[in-house]
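Kindly draft a polypeptide, keeping tokens residue-aligned:

***
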Amino acid sequence: MNIKAVTTAAGILLASASAFAQQSTVTGAVGGAATGAIVGGPVGAAVGGIVGGVAGSVIDPPPPKVVTYVEQAPAPAERVVVKEKVVVGQPLPETVVVTPIPDDPKYAYAIVNNQRVIVEPSSRTVIQVIE
């Protein structure tokens, strides 16, 4: 088979897998394994499953009821402002008080720089910024 044809086919496959990964709601180990299998066959599936499991466990969005709760929670009287930009995947500074979500203790929230953020309580890692 012509090397140029193989390279072109691999490029198309890689691009379609990338688009699938960006548009898919499948996350975690299953999504990583599926994408890895498309790109790299059985070895890609194993590597993709491991990477997807690690990344998916950190970045999975919170359930809609948690988002709704944070959107409707009253803002504290005192505004919290920090110099650092609030970024998904990064922890909030220790000076920011996080409030647990009563019905789902896996999540907490804070209002920082006039932004409502959902965090993982033990690590204080930002999971979602609500715009």
In short: The chain has three helices and four strands. The longest strand covers residues 115-120. The chain has two domains: 3-59, 64-130.
